Amino acid sequence: MGAGVCCFSCLHHIFSLGLVMALEKDEKSVTIFEENLSTESESEPAPSDLDGAAIFLDAHKDVDISHIDIVKLRHKIDRCLVPLMCLCFIMQFLDKAIYNYTALMGLPKDLHFKHGDFSNVASGYAFAHLAMQLPNTYLLQRLPASKWLCSCMIGWGLVTLCTASVQNFAGIFVARIFLAITEATIGPSLMLITAQWYRKSEQAPRFAIWHSAPGVGQILGGLMSYAFQVPQQGKLAGWRLMFIALGIITLFVAGLCFYYLPDTPMNSRWLSTEEKVAILKHVSVNMTGISNHKPRPGELLEAAKDVQIYGLALPAVLAAMTSGLTGTYSTTLIKNLGFTSRQSALLNMPSGIVNILSNMIVGFGIRRTSYRWAWGVGCTIPGITGAAMLSFLPQPNAAGSLVGIYLVGAITSISTIMQQWAMANVSGHTKRALTAGVMSACYGIGGILGPQTFQDKYAPRYLPATLTVMATQASCAVVFVCLFQYYLWENRRRDRVQSNHGIVEDVGEVDMSNQDAWAGATDRENPQFSFVPVLPAV
Questions:
Q1: What does pTM read for this prediction?
Q2: Which tens digit of pLDDT belongs to each residue from 144-170?
Q3: Could you give the number of structural domains in the chain?
Q4: Does residue 12 lie within any of the structural domains?
Protein backbone atom coordinates (compact mmCIF):
# COMPACT_ATOMS: atom_id res chain seq x y z
CA MET A 1 0.00 0.00 0.00
CA GLY A 2 2.95 2.30 0.76
CA ALA A 3 4.21 1.88 -2.80
CA GLY A 4 0.79 2.83 -4.16
CA VAL A 5 0.57 5.96 -2.02
CA CYS A 6 4.12 6.92 -2.99
CA CYS A 7 3.36 6.48 -6.69
CA PHE A 8 0.18 8.54 -6.40
CA SER A 9 2.00 11.33 -4.56
CA CYS A 10 4.74 11.51 -7.20
CA LEU A 11 2.31 11.56 -10.10
CA HIS A 12 0.08 14.09 -8.36
CA HIS A 13 3.01 16.47 -7.86
CA ILE A 14 4.10 16.01 -11.48
CA PHE A 15 0.60 16.85 -12.74
CA SER A 16 0.25 19.82 -10.40
CA LEU A 17 3.68 21.16 -11.35
CA GLY A 18 2.91 20.74 -15.03
CA LEU A 19 -0.39 22.59 -14.68
CA VAL A 20 1.28 25.48 -12.88
CA MET A 21 4.03 25.66 -15.51
CA ALA A 22 1.42 25.63 -18.27
CA LEU A 23 -0.46 28.51 -16.69
CA GLU A 24 2.72 30.50 -16.08
CA LYS A 25 3.74 30.08 -19.72
CA ASP A 26 0.46 31.52 -20.99
CA GLU A 27 2.10 34.54 -22.61
CA LYS A 28 4.78 32.43 -24.27
CA SER A 29 2.17 29.99 -25.56
CA VAL A 30 0.11 32.83 -26.96
CA THR A 31 3.16 34.14 -28.83
CA ILE A 32 3.83 30.76 -30.44
CA PHE A 33 0.14 30.37 -31.19
CA GLU A 34 0.04 33.77 -32.86
CA GLU A 35 3.06 32.87 -34.98
CA ASN A 36 1.26 29.77 -36.17
CA LEU A 37 -1.79 31.86 -37.04
CA SER A 38 0.24 34.37 -39.01
CA THR A 39 2.10 31.73 -41.01
CA GLU A 40 -0.82 29.37 -41.45
CA SER A 41 -1.92 30.75 -44.80
CA GLU A 42 1.63 31.36 -46.04
CA SER A 43 2.99 27.81 -45.92
CA GLU A 44 1.90 24.56 -47.45
CA PRO A 45 2.73 21.22 -45.86
CA ALA A 46 5.53 19.31 -47.57
CA PRO A 47 4.32 16.31 -49.58
CA SER A 48 6.21 13.97 -47.26
CA ASP A 49 4.31 15.43 -44.29
CA LEU A 50 0.91 14.90 -45.84
CA ASP A 51 -1.30 12.18 -44.48
CA GLY A 52 -2.05 9.19 -46.70
CA ALA A 53 -5.68 10.28 -46.65
CA ALA A 54 -4.80 13.59 -48.33
CA ILE A 55 -2.97 11.78 -51.12
CA PHE A 56 -5.92 9.42 -51.61
CA LEU A 57 -8.45 12.26 -51.65
CA ASP A 58 -6.37 14.25 -54.12
CA ALA A 59 -6.26 11.23 -56.45
CA HIS A 60 -10.05 10.82 -56.19
CA LYS A 61 -11.15 14.46 -56.01
CA ASP A 62 -13.68 14.02 -58.81
CA VAL A 63 -15.52 11.13 -57.13
CA ASP A 64 -19.20 11.89 -56.53
CA ILE A 65 -20.30 11.00 -52.99
CA SER A 66 -23.61 12.88 -52.91
CA HIS A 67 -25.52 9.58 -52.86
CA ILE A 68 -23.64 8.19 -49.84
CA ASP A 69 -25.67 8.03 -46.61
CA ILE A 70 -23.08 8.58 -43.89
CA VAL A 71 -25.25 6.96 -41.20
CA LYS A 72 -25.63 3.76 -43.21
CA LEU A 73 -21.92 3.84 -44.02
CA ARG A 74 -21.06 4.19 -40.34
CA HIS A 75 -23.24 1.20 -39.52
CA LYS A 76 -21.51 -0.82 -42.24
CA ILE A 77 -18.13 0.03 -40.74
CA ASP A 78 -19.43 -0.94 -37.30
CA ARG A 79 -20.51 -4.36 -38.58
CA CYS A 80 -17.20 -5.06 -40.28
CA LEU A 81 -14.71 -3.47 -37.89
CA VAL A 82 -15.99 -3.54 -34.31
CA PRO A 83 -16.53 -7.34 -34.04
CA LEU A 84 -12.94 -7.95 -35.15
CA MET A 85 -11.57 -5.53 -32.54
CA CYS A 86 -13.73 -7.20 -29.89
CA LEU A 87 -12.41 -10.64 -30.84
CA CYS A 88 -8.83 -9.38 -30.53
CA PHE A 89 -9.47 -7.95 -27.07
CA ILE A 90 -11.42 -11.01 -25.87
CA MET A 91 -8.55 -13.33 -26.79
CA GLN A 92 -5.96 -11.02 -25.25
CA PHE A 93 -7.92 -10.89 -22.01
CA LEU A 94 -8.47 -14.65 -21.90
CA ASP A 95 -4.84 -15.49 -22.64
CA LYS A 96 -3.76 -13.07 -19.90
CA ALA A 97 -6.50 -13.77 -17.34
CA ILE A 98 -6.22 -17.55 -17.58
CA TYR A 99 -3.45 -17.21 -14.99
CA ASN A 100 -6.08 -15.95 -12.55
CA TYR A 101 -8.10 -19.16 -12.98
CA THR A 102 -5.10 -21.49 -12.76
CA ALA A 103 -4.85 -20.56 -9.07
CA LEU A 104 -8.05 -22.58 -8.67
CA MET A 105 -6.94 -25.38 -10.96
CA GLY A 106 -3.76 -26.56 -9.28
CA LEU A 107 -1.03 -24.76 -11.24
CA PRO A 108 0.79 -23.44 -8.13
CA LYS A 109 0.89 -26.95 -6.70
CA ASP A 110 1.88 -28.64 -9.97
CA LEU A 111 4.74 -26.19 -10.55
CA HIS A 112 5.86 -26.31 -6.89
CA PHE A 113 5.35 -22.61 -6.20
CA LYS A 114 6.93 -21.18 -3.08
CA HIS A 115 5.92 -18.16 -1.01
CA GLY A 116 5.30 -15.14 -3.26
CA ASP A 117 5.87 -16.96 -6.58
CA PHE A 118 2.30 -16.41 -7.80
CA SER A 119 2.57 -12.63 -7.27
CA ASN A 120 6.06 -12.55 -8.79
CA VAL A 121 4.77 -14.07 -12.03
CA ALA A 122 1.99 -11.45 -12.17
CA SER A 123 4.49 -8.64 -11.54
CA GLY A 124 6.87 -10.05 -14.16
CA TYR A 125 4.11 -9.82 -16.75
CA ALA A 126 3.45 -6.19 -15.80
CA PHE A 127 7.16 -5.24 -15.95
CA ALA A 128 7.56 -6.79 -19.41
CA HIS A 129 4.36 -5.11 -20.62
CA LEU A 130 5.72 -1.76 -19.42
CA ALA A 131 9.18 -2.28 -20.95
CA MET A 132 7.69 -3.10 -24.36
CA GLN A 133 5.81 0.19 -24.71
CA LEU A 134 8.74 2.22 -26.06
CA PRO A 135 9.60 -0.16 -28.94
CA ASN A 136 5.89 -0.69 -29.51
CA THR A 137 5.39 3.06 -29.91
CA TYR A 138 8.12 3.20 -32.55
CA LEU A 139 6.72 0.21 -34.43
CA LEU A 140 3.20 1.66 -34.42
CA GLN A 141 4.64 4.80 -36.02
CA ARG A 142 6.43 2.80 -38.71
CA LEU A 143 3.93 -0.01 -39.38
CA PRO A 144 0.16 -0.23 -39.95
CA ALA A 145 -1.46 -0.74 -36.54
CA SER A 146 -3.68 -3.58 -37.75
CA LYS A 147 -0.83 -5.62 -39.27
CA TRP A 148 1.37 -5.15 -36.22
CA LEU A 149 -1.52 -6.14 -33.95
CA CYS A 150 -2.29 -9.31 -35.92
CA SER A 151 1.39 -10.30 -36.03
CA CYS A 152 1.63 -9.92 -32.26
CA MET A 153 -1.59 -11.88 -31.88
CA ILE A 154 -0.03 -14.84 -33.68
CA GLY A 155 2.89 -14.51 -31.27
CA TRP A 156 0.81 -14.57 -28.10
CA GLY A 157 -1.25 -17.47 -29.44
CA LEU A 158 1.94 -19.50 -29.85
CA VAL A 159 3.14 -18.47 -26.39
CA THR A 160 -0.19 -19.55 -24.87
CA LEU A 161 0.16 -22.94 -26.55
CA CYS A 162 3.72 -23.36 -25.29
CA THR A 163 2.70 -22.43 -21.74
CA ALA A 164 0.88 -25.75 -21.49
CA SER A 165 4.29 -27.48 -21.39
CA VAL A 166 5.93 -25.56 -18.52
CA GLN A 167 7.18 -27.64 -15.60
CA ASN A 168 8.36 -25.15 -12.97
CA PHE A 169 8.32 -21.53 -11.80
CA ALA A 170 11.06 -20.48 -14.25
CA GLY A 171 9.10 -21.89 -17.17
CA ILE A 172 5.84 -20.10 -16.37
CA PHE A 173 7.72 -16.88 -15.54
CA VAL A 174 9.49 -16.81 -18.92
CA ALA A 175 6.27 -17.72 -20.74
CA ARG A 176 4.40 -14.85 -19.11
CA ILE A 177 7.21 -12.44 -19.99
CA PHE A 178 6.92 -13.35 -23.67
CA LEU A 179 3.13 -13.15 -23.42
CA ALA A 180 3.40 -9.60 -22.07
CA ILE A 181 5.79 -8.59 -24.87
CA THR A 182 3.41 -9.80 -27.57
CA GLU A 183 0.25 -8.49 -25.88
CA ALA A 184 1.62 -5.02 -25.12
CA THR A 185 0.33 -3.58 -28.39
CA ILE A 186 -3.36 -4.46 -27.94
CA GLY A 187 -4.46 -1.23 -26.25
CA PRO A 188 -2.46 1.28 -28.33
CA SER A 189 -3.30 -0.50 -31.59
CA LEU A 190 -7.04 -0.58 -30.98
CA MET A 191 -6.98 3.06 -29.86
CA LEU A 192 -5.28 4.17 -33.08
CA ILE A 193 -7.47 1.97 -35.29
CA THR A 194 -10.68 3.33 -33.76
CA ALA A 195 -9.52 6.92 -34.14
CA GLN A 196 -8.92 6.35 -37.89
CA TRP A 197 -12.53 5.49 -38.64
CA TYR A 198 -14.74 7.70 -36.44
CA ARG A 199 -15.27 11.33 -35.52
CA LYS A 200 -14.41 12.35 -31.98
CA SER A 201 -18.08 12.42 -31.04
CA GLU A 202 -18.56 8.90 -32.43
CA GLN A 203 -15.55 7.25 -30.83
CA ALA A 204 -16.72 6.79 -27.24
CA PRO A 205 -19.39 4.11 -27.97
CA ARG A 206 -16.91 2.16 -30.11
CA PHE A 207 -14.25 2.35 -27.43
CA ALA A 208 -16.89 1.16 -24.97
CA ILE A 209 -17.87 -1.82 -27.11
CA TRP A 210 -14.39 -3.23 -27.53
CA HIS A 211 -13.53 -2.28 -23.96
CA SER A 212 -16.46 -4.46 -22.90
CA ALA A 213 -14.77 -7.46 -24.52
CA PRO A 214 -12.83 -8.32 -21.33
CA GLY A 215 -16.20 -8.60 -19.60
CA VAL A 216 -17.21 -11.18 -22.20
CA GLY A 217 -13.83 -12.82 -21.69
CA GLN A 218 -14.40 -12.93 -17.94
CA ILE A 219 -17.68 -14.77 -18.45
CA LEU A 220 -16.15 -17.19 -20.95
CA GLY A 221 -13.11 -17.68 -18.72
CA GLY A 222 -15.31 -18.64 -15.79
CA LEU A 223 -17.18 -21.18 -17.90
CA MET A 224 -13.97 -22.63 -19.34
CA SER A 225 -12.34 -22.88 -15.92
CA TYR A 226 -15.42 -24.61 -14.55
CA ALA A 227 -15.42 -27.07 -17.46
CA PHE A 228 -11.70 -27.85 -17.31
CA GLN A 229 -11.84 -28.46 -13.55
CA VAL A 230 -13.74 -31.69 -14.22
CA PRO A 231 -11.48 -34.55 -13.00
CA GLN A 232 -9.36 -35.78 -15.92
CA GLN A 233 -8.59 -39.43 -16.57
CA GLY A 234 -5.63 -38.60 -18.81
CA LYS A 235 -2.19 -37.26 -17.93
CA LEU A 236 -2.76 -33.59 -18.76
CA ALA A 237 -4.02 -31.32 -16.00
CA GLY A 238 -7.08 -29.19 -16.67
CA TRP A 239 -5.11 -25.95 -16.70
CA ARG A 240 -2.76 -27.33 -19.37
CA LEU A 241 -5.70 -28.29 -21.57
CA MET A 242 -7.14 -24.80 -21.14
CA PHE A 243 -3.89 -23.20 -22.33
CA ILE A 244 -3.89 -25.45 -25.40
CA ALA A 245 -7.52 -24.67 -26.25
CA LEU A 246 -7.07 -20.90 -25.90
CA GLY A 247 -3.84 -20.94 -27.91
CA ILE A 248 -5.53 -22.67 -30.84
CA ILE A 249 -8.53 -20.31 -30.76
CA THR A 250 -6.20 -17.28 -30.61
CA LEU A 251 -4.30 -18.40 -33.71
CA PHE A 252 -7.58 -18.85 -35.59
CA VAL A 253 -8.81 -15.37 -34.63
CA ALA A 254 -5.42 -13.88 -35.57
CA GLY A 255 -5.70 -15.35 -39.06
CA LEU A 256 -9.24 -14.01 -39.40
CA CYS A 257 -8.21 -10.50 -38.37
CA PHE A 258 -5.10 -10.58 -40.55
CA TYR A 259 -7.28 -11.11 -43.60
CA TYR A 260 -10.27 -8.87 -42.82
CA LEU A 261 -8.91 -6.03 -40.64
CA PRO A 262 -7.78 -3.23 -43.01
CA ASP A 263 -4.71 -1.08 -42.43
CA THR A 264 -6.63 2.14 -43.16
CA PRO A 265 -9.94 3.17 -44.73
CA MET A 266 -8.02 3.76 -47.98
CA ASN A 267 -7.20 0.08 -48.53
CA SER A 268 -10.29 -1.54 -47.05
CA ARG A 269 -11.48 -4.49 -49.13
CA TRP A 270 -15.12 -4.04 -48.06
CA LEU A 271 -15.55 -0.35 -48.94
CA SER A 272 -16.11 1.07 -52.42
CA THR A 273 -14.05 4.02 -53.64
CA GLU A 274 -17.00 6.35 -53.06
CA GLU A 275 -17.41 5.06 -49.51
CA LYS A 276 -13.70 5.52 -48.80
CA VAL A 277 -13.82 9.13 -49.94
CA ALA A 278 -16.99 9.76 -47.93
CA ILE A 279 -15.62 8.37 -44.68
CA LEU A 280 -12.32 10.25 -45.04
CA LYS A 281 -14.14 13.54 -45.54
CA HIS A 282 -16.42 12.68 -42.64
CA VAL A 283 -13.58 12.15 -40.14
CA SER A 284 -11.44 15.02 -41.44
CA VAL A 285 -12.99 17.31 -38.81
CA ASN A 286 -10.92 15.46 -36.19
CA MET A 287 -7.73 17.04 -37.59
CA THR A 288 -5.83 14.05 -36.19
CA GLY A 289 -4.93 12.28 -39.44
CA ILE A 290 -5.17 8.69 -40.65
CA SER A 291 -1.80 7.37 -41.80
CA ASN A 292 1.68 8.87 -41.88
CA HIS A 293 4.69 6.65 -41.17
CA LYS A 294 7.28 9.43 -41.14
CA PRO A 295 8.51 9.94 -37.54
CA ARG A 296 8.77 13.51 -36.24
CA PRO A 297 11.17 13.51 -33.26
CA GLY A 298 10.09 17.02 -32.29
CA GLU A 299 6.69 15.67 -31.35
CA LEU A 300 8.31 13.50 -28.66
CA LEU A 301 9.66 16.61 -26.94
CA GLU A 302 6.31 18.36 -27.30
CA ALA A 303 4.58 15.40 -25.66
CA ALA A 304 7.07 15.43 -22.79
CA LYS A 305 6.21 19.09 -22.10
CA ASP A 306 2.45 18.72 -22.61
CA VAL A 307 0.60 18.93 -19.30
CA GLN A 308 -2.46 17.13 -20.68
CA ILE A 309 -0.42 13.93 -21.19
CA TYR A 310 0.32 13.82 -17.46
CA GLY A 311 -3.28 14.62 -16.64
CA LEU A 312 -4.48 11.76 -18.83
CA ALA A 313 -1.85 9.36 -17.53
CA LEU A 314 -2.50 9.84 -13.82
CA PRO A 315 -6.06 8.40 -13.75
CA ALA A 316 -4.85 5.54 -15.95
CA VAL A 317 -2.26 4.55 -13.34
CA LEU A 318 -4.70 4.96 -10.48
CA ALA A 319 -7.39 2.88 -12.20
CA ALA A 320 -4.90 0.15 -13.12
CA MET A 321 -3.82 -0.19 -9.49
CA THR A 322 -7.14 -1.94 -8.90
CA SER A 323 -6.10 -4.73 -11.28
CA GLY A 324 -5.21 -7.00 -8.39
CA LEU A 325 -8.76 -6.81 -7.09
CA THR A 326 -10.52 -6.95 -10.46
CA GLY A 327 -8.15 -9.39 -12.16
CA THR A 328 -5.35 -11.51 -10.73
CA TYR A 329 -6.82 -12.09 -7.28
CA SER A 330 -10.57 -11.85 -7.85
CA THR A 331 -11.14 -15.62 -7.83
CA THR A 332 -8.87 -15.99 -4.80
CA LEU A 333 -10.93 -13.43 -2.88
CA ILE A 334 -14.12 -15.27 -3.77
CA LYS A 335 -12.67 -18.63 -2.74
CA ASN A 336 -11.61 -17.13 0.60
CA LEU A 337 -15.29 -16.44 1.27
CA GLY A 338 -15.81 -20.18 1.65
CA PHE A 339 -16.65 -21.32 -1.87
CA THR A 340 -15.11 -24.25 -3.76
CA SER A 341 -12.77 -23.73 -6.71
CA ARG A 342 -15.47 -24.52 -9.28
CA GLN A 343 -18.01 -22.31 -7.50
CA SER A 344 -15.47 -19.47 -7.38
CA ALA A 345 -14.95 -19.68 -11.15
CA LEU A 346 -18.69 -19.30 -11.74
CA LEU A 347 -19.16 -16.59 -9.11
CA ASN A 348 -16.49 -14.49 -10.79
CA MET A 349 -18.60 -14.27 -13.95
CA PRO A 350 -20.93 -11.46 -12.76
CA SER A 351 -17.88 -9.18 -12.65
CA GLY A 352 -17.79 -9.56 -16.42
CA ILE A 353 -21.44 -8.50 -16.64
CA VAL A 354 -20.67 -5.40 -14.55
CA ASN A 355 -17.74 -4.65 -16.86
CA ILE A 356 -19.98 -4.83 -19.94
CA LEU A 357 -22.81 -2.76 -18.46
CA SER A 358 -20.58 -0.03 -17.03
CA ASN A 359 -18.65 0.38 -20.29
CA MET A 360 -21.80 0.48 -22.40
CA ILE A 361 -23.52 3.00 -20.12
CA VAL A 362 -20.46 5.25 -20.11
CA GLY A 363 -19.70 4.95 -23.83
CA PHE A 364 -23.21 5.66 -25.05
CA GLY A 365 -23.78 8.18 -22.27
CA ILE A 366 -20.81 10.21 -23.50
CA ARG A 367 -22.18 10.00 -27.03
CA ARG A 368 -25.44 11.61 -25.86
CA THR A 369 -24.27 14.06 -23.20
CA SER A 370 -20.50 14.27 -23.83
CA TYR A 371 -19.54 15.20 -20.27
CA ARG A 372 -16.52 12.93 -20.06
CA TRP A 373 -15.29 14.32 -16.76
CA ALA A 374 -18.69 13.82 -15.10
CA TRP A 375 -18.96 10.25 -16.34
CA GLY A 376 -15.44 9.65 -15.07
CA VAL A 377 -16.34 10.92 -11.61
CA GLY A 378 -19.48 8.79 -11.68
CA CYS A 379 -17.45 5.67 -12.50
CA THR A 380 -15.43 6.05 -9.32
CA ILE A 381 -18.48 5.90 -7.05
CA PRO A 382 -19.25 2.15 -7.46
CA GLY A 383 -15.56 1.34 -7.00
CA ILE A 384 -15.30 3.34 -3.78
CA THR A 385 -18.55 1.82 -2.50
CA GLY A 386 -17.48 -1.73 -3.32
CA ALA A 387 -14.05 -1.31 -1.75
CA ALA A 388 -15.65 0.17 1.38
CA MET A 389 -17.92 -2.86 1.65
CA LEU A 390 -14.94 -5.21 1.40
CA SER A 391 -13.02 -3.16 3.96
CA PHE A 392 -15.60 -2.50 6.64
CA LEU A 393 -18.45 -5.03 6.45
CA PRO A 394 -18.45 -7.36 9.47
CA GLN A 395 -17.29 -10.84 8.50
CA PRO A 396 -18.32 -13.46 7.65
CA ASN A 397 -20.60 -11.84 5.09
CA ALA A 398 -20.19 -13.66 1.80
CA ALA A 399 -23.13 -11.95 0.07
CA GLY A 400 -22.00 -8.43 0.96
CA SER A 401 -18.40 -9.16 0.00
CA LEU A 402 -19.48 -10.56 -3.37
CA VAL A 403 -21.48 -7.41 -4.08
CA GLY A 404 -18.42 -5.36 -3.16
CA ILE A 405 -16.22 -7.32 -5.58
CA TYR A 406 -18.76 -6.86 -8.36
CA LEU A 407 -19.08 -3.11 -7.76
CA VAL A 408 -15.32 -2.65 -7.97
CA GLY A 409 -15.53 -4.14 -11.48
CA ALA A 410 -17.20 -0.92 -12.68
CA ILE A 411 -13.81 0.80 -12.41
CA THR A 412 -12.78 -0.71 -15.75
CA SER A 413 -14.92 1.85 -17.58
CA ILE A 414 -12.46 4.56 -16.52
CA SER A 415 -10.06 3.08 -19.08
CA THR A 416 -12.67 3.63 -21.80
CA ILE A 417 -12.95 7.31 -20.93
CA MET A 418 -9.23 8.00 -20.62
CA GLN A 419 -8.18 6.24 -23.82
CA GLN A 420 -10.88 7.88 -25.93
CA TRP A 421 -10.22 11.28 -24.36
CA ALA A 422 -6.54 10.92 -25.20
CA MET A 423 -7.21 10.02 -28.84
CA ALA A 424 -9.67 12.91 -29.20
CA ASN A 425 -7.31 15.54 -27.79
CA VAL A 426 -3.89 14.56 -29.14
CA SER A 427 -2.91 15.21 -32.74
CA GLY A 428 0.27 14.50 -34.70
CA HIS A 429 1.08 10.96 -35.80
CA THR A 430 4.21 10.51 -33.69
CA LYS A 431 2.69 12.23 -30.68
CA ARG A 432 -0.49 10.13 -30.91
CA ALA A 433 1.46 6.88 -31.14
CA LEU A 434 3.51 7.96 -28.13
CA THR A 435 0.38 8.93 -26.19
CA ALA A 436 -1.22 5.56 -26.90
CA GLY A 437 1.96 3.91 -25.64
CA VAL A 438 2.03 6.09 -22.54
CA MET A 439 -1.57 5.18 -21.70
CA SER A 440 -0.76 1.49 -22.06
CA ALA A 441 2.42 1.94 -20.01
CA CYS A 442 0.36 3.52 -17.24
CA TYR A 443 -1.72 0.37 -16.99
CA GLY A 444 1.56 -1.54 -16.78
CA ILE A 445 2.69 0.64 -13.87
CA GLY A 446 -0.62 0.13 -12.11
CA GLY A 447 -0.38 -3.57 -12.83
CA ILE A 448 2.97 -3.67 -11.04
CA LEU A 449 1.83 -1.70 -8.00
CA GLY A 450 -1.64 -3.21 -7.59
CA PRO A 451 -0.69 -6.84 -6.87
CA GLN A 452 1.87 -5.70 -4.29
CA THR A 453 -0.99 -4.81 -1.96
CA PHE A 454 -2.03 -8.48 -2.01
CA GLN A 455 0.50 -9.98 0.40
CA ASP A 456 -0.18 -13.35 2.01
CA LYS A 457 0.08 -11.81 5.47
CA TYR A 458 -3.01 -9.70 4.74
CA ALA A 459 -5.20 -12.67 3.75
CA PRO A 460 -8.09 -13.33 3.66
CA ARG A 461 -9.47 -9.75 3.54
CA TYR A 462 -6.42 -8.03 2.02
CA LEU A 463 -7.33 -4.77 3.73
CA PRO A 464 -4.42 -2.72 2.26
CA ALA A 465 -5.65 -3.61 -1.24
CA THR A 466 -9.25 -2.55 -0.64
CA LEU A 467 -8.20 0.68 1.09
CA THR A 468 -5.90 1.43 -1.85
CA VAL A 469 -8.85 1.09 -4.22
CA MET A 470 -10.80 3.66 -2.20
CA ALA A 471 -7.89 6.11 -2.19
CA THR A 472 -7.06 5.76 -5.88
CA GLN A 473 -10.65 6.14 -7.03
CA ALA A 474 -11.21 9.26 -4.94
CA SER A 475 -8.02 10.68 -6.45
CA CYS A 476 -9.25 9.81 -9.95
CA ALA A 477 -12.37 11.91 -9.38
CA VAL A 478 -10.26 14.93 -8.41
CA VAL A 479 -8.02 14.58 -11.48
CA PHE A 480 -11.04 14.33 -13.80
CA VAL A 481 -12.30 17.70 -12.56
CA CYS A 482 -8.84 19.29 -12.88
CA LEU A 483 -8.41 17.97 -16.42
CA PHE A 484 -11.82 19.30 -17.41
CA GLN A 485 -10.93 22.76 -16.10
CA TYR A 486 -7.59 22.69 -17.92
CA TYR A 487 -9.23 21.93 -21.27
CA LEU A 488 -11.77 24.72 -20.77
CA TRP A 489 -8.97 27.16 -19.99
CA GLU A 490 -6.93 26.10 -23.02
CA ASN A 491 -9.87 26.40 -25.43
CA ARG A 492 -10.78 29.84 -24.09
CA ARG A 493 -7.17 30.95 -24.51
CA ARG A 494 -7.16 29.77 -28.13
CA ASP A 495 -10.49 31.45 -28.82
CA ARG A 496 -9.16 34.68 -27.35
CA VAL A 497 -6.05 34.61 -29.54
CA GLN A 498 -8.04 33.85 -32.69
CA SER A 499 -10.51 36.59 -31.83
CA ASN A 500 -7.64 39.06 -31.52
CA HIS A 501 -6.64 38.10 -35.07
CA GLY A 502 -10.18 38.48 -36.36
CA ILE A 503 -10.57 34.75 -37.02
CA VAL A 504 -13.95 33.18 -36.36
CA GLU A 505 -14.21 29.59 -37.55
CA ASP A 506 -16.39 26.62 -36.79
CA VAL A 507 -13.98 23.76 -36.26
CA GLY A 508 -16.75 21.31 -37.05
CA GLU A 509 -16.69 22.35 -40.69
CA VAL A 510 -13.45 21.74 -42.58
CA ASP A 511 -12.87 22.73 -46.16
CA MET A 512 -11.52 19.57 -47.73
CA SER A 513 -9.62 21.57 -50.32
CA ASN A 514 -7.53 22.85 -47.42
CA GLN A 515 -4.77 20.35 -46.69
CA ASP A 516 -4.34 21.66 -43.14
CA ALA A 517 -6.74 18.94 -42.02
CA TRP A 518 -4.21 16.32 -43.18
CA ALA A 519 -0.93 18.19 -42.65
CA GLY A 520 0.05 16.08 -39.64
CA ALA A 521 0.26 19.09 -37.30
CA THR A 522 0.07 18.43 -33.58
CA ASP A 523 -2.65 19.80 -31.34
CA ARG A 524 -0.19 22.51 -30.24
CA GLU A 525 0.88 23.44 -33.77
CA ASN A 526 -2.60 23.60 -35.31
CA PRO A 527 -4.37 26.87 -34.38
CA GLN A 528 -7.74 25.41 -35.43
CA PHE A 529 -7.51 22.39 -33.14
CA SER A 530 -10.07 22.38 -30.34
CA PHE A 531 -9.73 20.24 -27.22
CA VAL A 532 -12.61 18.15 -25.96
CA PRO A 533 -13.72 18.97 -22.41
CA VAL A 534 -17.30 18.36 -23.51
CA LEU A 535 -18.32 17.58 -27.04
CA PRO A 536 -21.60 18.17 -28.85
CA ALA A 537 -23.24 14.97 -30.03
CA VAL A 538 -23.26 15.12 -33.84
A1: 0.78
A2: 999 999 999 999 999 999 999 999 999
A3: 1
A4: no
